[in-house]
Design goal:
Layout: H1 13-24, H2 31-38, H3 55-65, E1 72-76, E2 79-83, H4 89-104, H5 116-127, H6 131-135, H7 140-154, H8 158-163, H9 169-179
Antiparallel strand pairs: 1-2
């Protein structure tokens, strides 16, 4: 279950809104429930007040403001649809290199010693089913090493790793929720 340690503002609109929702809940909810609520994937009418509105659009808008994405209209037969293609390919490449280097050159073989942001990115790439794309540009031997190391990491017991703490409990809880 998710328990709020602090409701101090983070400076990020979506995170602060999430903290307000978590604080407002009567009983503690599970990570799985919060994922469903915060992504708008729940149909529980009693929980609708805890949903974040327009999450994808708000995230895309923030990335447009940072110059990473751009906004375009594409015509799909009868209707126009707003899309957000990457306009800053160097930022995308930097992120891909960061993940590749973390499992190849800076591999620590211990998630407790891994940088939290990198661990979170690997978990989210896995949950989004884009992890293979991260390593696709590597040579075959490096690709195999990267995928095997990442698989070993993702196959660890989230409860055991979360118990070791160091501020990664939520990352491991998210992995456990996606592995169900």
């Amino acid at each position: 279950q998710v328990l709020l340690k602090s409701d101090a503002p983070t400076g990020d609109v979506l995170l602060d809104e999430t903290l307000r929702h978590i604080k407002a809940t009567e009983a503690a909810e599970t990570v799985q429930t919060w994922i469903e609520l915060l992504t708008g994937e729940t149909w529980n009418p009693f929980k609708l007040q805890y949903q974040l509105r327009n999450v994808r659009e708000r995230l895309a808008k923030a990335l447009v403001e940072k110059g990473i994405l751009t906004t375009e209209k594409q015509n799909f037969l009868l209707f126009d649809m707003t899309t957000h293609p990457v306009c800053n390919a160097s930022e995308k490449q930097r992120l891909l290199r960061r993940l590749q280097e973390s499992v190849l050159e800076r591999w620590v073989n211990d998630p407790q010693r891994m940088e939290r942001r990198t661990l979170a990115l690997l978990v989210l790439a896995h949950a989004s089913d884009v992890l293979e794309n991260v390593f696709a540009s590597l040579a075959d031997d490096k690709y195999d090493v990267a995928m095997n190391r990442t698989k070993d990491l993702l196959d660890m017991d989230p409860e055991v790793e979360a118990a070791k703490a160091r501020g990664t409990e939520m990352i491991w809880a998210v992995l456990a929720a996606f592995n169900k």
